[in-house]
Specification:
Number of helices: 21
Structural class: alpha+beta
Strand content: 5-15%
Number of strands: 19
Radius of gyration: 55 Å
Shape: extended
Distance between the termini: 88 Å
Length: about 750
C-alpha cells in the first residue's frame, strides 16, 4: 500500500535511515492516533530550522470589481505540504504532529496554505510572515473566529489536531506605513533526475548516496484502496515500481484476444402489472356512484376486422397518392417555369450576341483597319452591286437599262476609290504598328520553360542593344516635343550611329545636323516633318541592318546569307516575283504553288469579292476545341481555310445536319465520335447548342436513328474520297483504318433504331 498525494510525505531523515518498500502497507490504528494525541511534544523549532527550504504557494482570485476574494488552495498545495513537511519531519520522530494552516492576509484577501507543527505559537507565525512581508512583527495582528490571539498561544491550544486544518486571519495595525502586499507565487517545483541521500551506516557514521529518479513510462492503474475514518487519510493499492518484462521475440507473429467477451442482447419485454379490486362484503361498503355500466357491442369477426383495416389502408393510400400527385405536378410546373425562363434568357442572349456581332461588323465596315475589315467591305459592295443589277434588269430595258448600268459602274468606281483611300490611311497606321511590333519582338528576352513549369527569361547583349535602339526610335518618332528634348534625342541618336562608320551613318548624322541647324534658326515644325520622316526612315534601315543590330537577323524576311535565298523560294505566276513559301496560300489538294497571297487577295477584290471571315472563325474554334482534348490531334492543323470551306459548302451544304440552320456564324465543326481524333471523315456540322448536347452523348446508336447515322456516314465517305488524294491526309486515313475507334461499326450492327435526339 502507498499513500495518496494528500498525505504528508515521509521525512528526509526517515528516508535516510529506513529504506521502506512502497509495496508495504501503511496504516494508522486507533491506538496510534490516541498515542499521538497524548504524546509529550518537544519544544518549538528554531526559526531557521523551520524556514529552511519552505516554499509558499499562494492562490489569488479576483472578482468582477478587481477585488481579491478567498479561494481554496489548488494543486500547488500538495507541493507546499510536501516541502514544508520534509522540514518539519526532519526534527520530529514521525509525521504525526503537522497540521495545515490557512492564513488569510487582509485587506487583499490572499489565502496562503502552509504546514506547521501544532505546538508552534502565534508569535512564531507573526515572525515568519514579518520576514516574508518585510514589516515589523509588532505591527501584525492574528485573529481566529473574530477573537484576537495572543502571541503565546499555540495551534494546539486553538483546537488543532494532527493533520487537521485551521484558518486564521492576519492584518496590519498600521496600513499607511506598513501595508500588507500580496506574496508572489513561487514557480512550480520539478523533481530533479538525481538526488543525494544521507544514509546512516553506523551509530555515528553517515554516507551520502546518489539516487537516480526513474520516471515511469506508463501510468499505473488504480487498484482500489481504503480510507481511515478517524483521520480521513486515503490509502491506495499499488503494484511494484518495476516495468513489466517483455516477452522474448520468437519470430512468430502472435495474436492475443480476450476470451471472456460479453455478448449483449437487447430485447423488449413487458412486465406484469398486478392489480386488485375491492368488492362489497360483510362489514365493508364500497360506493358504486362512480361505476360505469359497459354493454357489449356488435361482435367483429376476423374477416370484418381485416376488411375494416383494408378499407382504412385504401383511404390512406388515396390521400397519400393525392398528396404525391400534387407534389409531382408542382415539381413539373416548377421545372417548366425554369425551362421557359432559361429558354427566354438563351433567346435573349442569342439576340444580344447577334446584335453585338452586327454592330461590330457595321463598325468594321464604317472604319476598316484590317484585311478582314476590307474583305467585309468589298463583300458588301458586291452584294449591293448584284442587287442593283437585278433591280435594273427587272425594271428597265433597252437604252435606259444601258444608261442605268453605266451609272451603276461609275458609282461602283467611286466607292472602290473611297475604299482605296481608307486602305491607304489604314496601311499608314498599320505600318507604324507593324514597325513597333517588329522592334518589340527583337528586344524580347530569351524565354524557355523549365521542368517545373516556370518561365525563365534571359537578356543577352544583342537583346539589350535592340532594346536601346527601340527606345531611341520611339523617341525620335514622337511629335510635339519641346525643342530642348528634341535636341537631346537627336544628340543621343548621333552618338549611337557614330559607333559604326559607314555611308548610312554619315547620312543620318548629316540629317541630324541639318534639323538641329533649322531648329536653331526658328523654322516651324510643320516645315520639318519631311526631314524628320527621312531621319526615321534611315534610322529604321540602320536598325534592320544585322551588322548594327545582330538580333534582327533572325526576323528578316530576306536573310543576310545569299545562299539561304535558294531555300523555300517559289515563283509567283501572278506578280512574277520570287517569294518565300510563307507568302503562298495552298489548299490540301494543291499540286502546284500557283499565285501568292497578295495576288489571290487582289483577284478576290476585283472579281468574286468573297468574305472568308466566317470560315476563319470556324477553323479557329475547331483547333481550339481539339487542343482541349489533350490527345495530340494533328489533322485539324493540316486542314486549311480553303479545305474547310469546301467541306462546309460542298459536303455539308452550309447548314446544320440536325436543324438545317444556315447561319455560318452559329455553326461549328465537332467530332462525330468523341473518342477518336477529329478528321474530315469523323466530323459533323452543328450549331453551338447542338454540339454541346452531341458531345455529352455516351452512345450514338441510342441517340440517333439508323437513317440519320447512314446519312452522316455517307458524308464521311465523300470527305474520304476528296482528301485521300492528299499524301499527308492519306497516311492519316490508313492509320485510322488500321486502328478503328471504339463503337466505330456499332451503328451497322445495330438491329433496332434508337430514340431521336
Amino acid at each position: 500500500m502507498t499513500e495518496d498525494t494528500s498525505i504528508v510525505p515521509q521525512a528526509e531523515e526517515n528516508l535516510e535511515s529506513d529504506h521502506v518498500d512502497t509495496s508495504q502497507k501503511l496504516s494508522l490504528s486507533e491506538e496510534q492516533t490516541d498515542a499521538a494525541e497524548s504524546y509529550d511534544y518537544p519544544p518549538p523549532l528554531d526559526q531557521e530550522t523551520v524556514l529552511e527550504g519552505q516554499d509558499i504557494v499562494v492562490e489569488q482570485v479576483l472578482d468582477d470589481k478587481g477585488e481579491q476574494i478567498i479561494s481554496e488552495p489548488t494543486s500547488p498545495l500538495i507541493e507546499i505540504r510536501e516541502e514544508t513537511s520534509e522540514i518539519a519531519t526532519a526534527t520530529f520522530p514521525n509525521f504525526l504532529f503537522v497540521s495545515s494552516v490557512k492564513i488569510m492576509l487582509l485587506p487583499d484577501i490572499q489565502m496562503i496554505t502552509m504546514a506547521f507543527s501544532i505546538d508552534q505559537t502565534t508569535g512564531y507565525l507573526k515572525q515568519y510572515f514579518a520576514s516574508q512581508l518585510k514589516i515589523p512583527p509588532d505591527v501584525l495582528q492574528v485573529m481566529f473566529q473574530g477573537i484576537m490571539i495572543e502571541d503565546s498561544e499555540t495551534l494546539m491550544s486553538l483546537g488543532v489536531r494532527p493533520h487537521g486544518t485551521i484558518q486564521i486571519e492576519m492584518f496590519s495595525l498600521d496600513l499607511e506605513k506598513f501595508p500588507i502586499k500580496a506574496i508572489q507565487l513561487q514557480p512550480e517545483y520539478n523533481m530533479p533526475d538525481v538526488i543525494t541521500i544521507r544514509v546512516q551506516t553506523d551509530s555515528d557514521t553517515f554516507q551520502e548516496v546518489a539516487v537516480e529518479i526513474e520516471r515511469p513510462t506508463y501510468r499505473k492503474p488504480f487498484l482500489g484502496g481504503f480510507r481511515n475514518r478517524m483521520t480521513g487519510v486515503e490509502f491506495h493499492n499499488a503494484g511494484s515500481q518495476t516495468v513489466p518484462k517483455k516477452r522474448p521475440d520468437k519470430g512468430i507473429e502472435i495474436f492475443c484476444r480476450e476470451t471472456q467477451t460479453v455478448v449483449e442482447r437487447r430485447k423488449l419485454q413487458q412486465t406484469r402489472n398486478t392489480t386488485s379490486t375491492q368488492m362489497t362484503k360483510i362489514g365493508l361498503y364500497v360506493s358504486n356512484l362512480t361505476d360505469k355500466l359497459i354493454q357489449p357491442e356488435k361482435y367483429f369477426t376476423a374477416a370484418e376486422y381485416h376488411q375494416h383495416r383494408f378499407n382504412a389502408v385504401i383511404v390512406i393510400q388515396t390521400y397519400y397518392r393525392r398528396w404525391h400527385a400534387i407534389k409531382v405536378v408542382q415539381k413539373i410546373r416548377e421545372e417548366k417555369r425554369l425551362r421557359l425562363e432559361w429558354e427566354a434568357q438563351e433567346e435573349l442572349r442569342k439576340k444580344r450576341e447577334k446584335e453585338e456581332r452586327l454592330r461590330k461588323e457595321y463598325e468594321r465596315r464604317l472604319f476598316p483597319k484590317t484585311k478582314e475589315d476590307f474583305e467585309l467591305l468589298y463583300h458588301a459592295l458586291e452584294l449591293w452591286r448584284q442587287e442593283e443589277i437585278e433591280h435594273i434588269n427587272n425594271t428597265l430595258t433597252g437604252a435606259e437599262r444601258k444608261a442605268a448600268l453605266c451609272a451603276l459602274l461609275e458609282k461602283e468606281a467611286q466607292l472602290i476609290a473611297s475604299i482605296g483611300r481608307h486602305k491607304l490611311n489604314a496601311d499608314e497606321e498599320n505600318q507604324q504598328k507593324a514597325i513597333l511590333y517588329f522592334l518589340d519582338k527583337c528586344a524580347e528576352p530569351k524565354r524557355w520553360k523549365a521542368f517545373d513549369g516556370k518561365i525563365t527569361e534571359m537578356d543577352t547583349q544583342f537583346t539589350l542593344r535592340a532594346r536601346d535602339l527601340l527606345e531611341i526610335y520611339r523617341s525620335i518618332s514622337m511629335k510635339d516635343l519641346p525643342q530642348e528634348e528634341r535636341l537631346d534625342v537627336l544628340l543621343t541618336l548621333k552618338h549611337t550611329v557614330k559607333e559604326h562608320e559607314c555611308k548610312l551613318s554619315q547620312d543620318i548624322v548629316e540629317l541630324i545636323d541639318r534639323e538641329a541647324d533649322l531648329m536653331m534658326r526658328g523654322v516651324k515644325e510643320y516645315n520639318l516633318e519631311g526631314l524628320r520622316k527621312r531621319i526615321c526612315t534611315l534610322f529604321l534601315q540602320y536598325i534592320k541592318t544585322p551588322t548594327f543590330n545582330p538580333e534582327v537577323a533572325r526576323l528578316l524576311k530576306v536573310p543576310p546569307d545569299p545562299l539561304k535565298l535558294y531555300k523555300n523560294i517559289n515563283f509567283c505566276r501572278g506578280c512574277k516575283k520570287y517569294l518565300p513559301s510563307i507568302e503562298f496560300s495552298m489548299s490540301a489538294n494543291s499540286r502546284s504553288v500557283g499565285r501568292c497571297r497578295r495576288c489571290c487577295k487582289l483577284d478576290n477584290e476585283a472579281r468574286r469579292r468573297e468574305a472568308f471571315l466566317k470560315y476563319k472563325l470556324m477553323l479557329r474554334n475547331l483547333r481550339d476545341a481539339e487542343v482541349d482534348y489533350h490527345d495530340d490531334a494533328k489533322t485539324a492543323f493540316l486542314i486549311q481555310q480553303q479545305d474547310l470551306q469546301y467541306m462546309v459548302e460542298s459536303i455539308w451544304g452550309c447548314q446544320s445536319a440536325l436543324s438545317a440552320w444556315d447561319d455560318l456564324y452559329d455553326l461549328v465543326m465537332v467530332r462525330w465520335n468523341k473518342y477518336c481524333e477529329w478528321s474530315p471523315w469523323n466530323t459533323i456540322l452543328l450549331t453551338k447548342d447542338e454540339a454541346d448536347a452531341h458531345l455529352k452523348l455516351s452512345s450514338l446508336e441510342q441517340a440517333y436513328e439508323i437513317v440519320f447515322i447512314h446519312k452522316i456516314k455517307h458524308k464521311h465517305i465523300l470527305a474520304k474520297n476528296y482528301f485521300s488524294q492528299i499524301p499527308e491526309m492519306a497516311s492519316v486515313l490508313h492509320k485510322d483504318d488500321n486502328q478503328a475507334c471504339p463503337n466505330e461499326h456499332s451503328a451497322t450492327n445495330s438491329s433496332s433504331p434508337g430514340s431521336k435526339m
